[in-house]
Design a protein that fits this description.
The chain is mainly alpha-helical. It has helices at 5-22, 26-41, 47-63, 67-79, 100-108, 113-139, 165-202, 207-230, and strands spanning 110-111, 244-245. It is built from eight helices and two strands. The protein is globular.
Length: 256
């Protein structure tokens, strides 16, 4: 079956969710290499997926101390449209800021103000959802009900981006959402199953407390869902659509 942009994006998504939930592996790295090859075969429409593969492989190289290879990978990503200057200010990438080759590839990137606004929002949403997943796991400690509470997710922006590089960051958010959701649901089903098993073995545990816990969880779920919906990206009126150099290296504060 021939690849399409949609099918290859889904494959990249699944590979990256596996990286976040199970850790990097040689098979996963080989999968990313395959995404690069298949994305290249798709031509211009698949260029942003080639950028996804190169970027992720570059981050892996840097994590394993292969800075030279990481720079080469990021250079190839930029050549295929990568322009997430916000990601390049994240903690794992900051050690490269003093490398002249990294500075040169950074200076080649171009982005519109409208796209930069969205990229900043996408990274901020990754941080917010990570914190909310941690808060939810704390809230679930000691819950006696058997309900399962999925993590709420802010809607993905639907505006037509000015540059295809924004699609790379949208995929990053989608991967983060899916990975956090997978981990959260696994823990929730484990808790729910454990409570059910205890009830079967030891008899009713505390139906009044369990009912109250379920009500509290429902109220918290509704509150978080409303908050996620309220965070939806809104395009700023008048945000520019002209390609500009990215803000100077070192001037972007990565969302906390």
């Amino acid at each position: 079956m021939a690849d399409t942009v949609h099918s290859l994006a889904a494959r990249a998504h699944d590979l990256l969710v596996g990286f976040l939930t199970e850790g990097p592996s040689p098979a996963g790295a080989a999968g990313l290499q395959d995404v690069v090859a298949r994305g290249t075969a798709l031509g211009p429409d698949g260029a942003w997926l080639v950028a996804v593969g190169h970027t992720c492989l570059g981050v892996l190289d840097l994590a394993h101390g292969r800075a030279d290879q990481a720079v080469l990978r990021l250079d190839a990503a930029v050549a295929h449209g990568f322009n997430d200057c916000v990601m390049l200010h994240s903690a794992p990438l900051r050690p490269l800021h003093g490398d002249p080759r990294f500075q040169a590839l950074y200076q080649r990137m171009r982005i519109t103000q409208g796209d930069l606004d969205e990229v900043l929002w996408l990274h901020q949403e990754m941080q917010i959802m990570t914190r909310e997943a941690q808060d939810a796991s704390v809230d679930d400690i000691g819950r006696l009900d058997t309900g399962v509470s999925p993590l709420p997710q802010a809607p993905m922006p639907t505006r037509a981006p000015h540059t295809p590089g924004v699609l790379v960051t949208r995929l990053d958010l989608s991967v983060t959402q899916s990975a956090l959701q997978r981990v959260a649901l696994k823990a929730q089903f484990r808790r729910s199953g454990g409570n059910t098993a205890l009830d079967l073995i030891d008899g009713p545990w505390d139906p009044v407390r369990a009912r109250r816990d379920a009500w509290d969880a429902d109220a918290s779920d509704s509150r978080r869902q409303r908050a996620a919906e309220a965070r939806a990206f809104v395009e700023r009126p008048g945000a520019g659509a002209v390609l500009l150099p990215c803000p100077p290296l070192g001037t972007i504060a990565y969302p906390a």
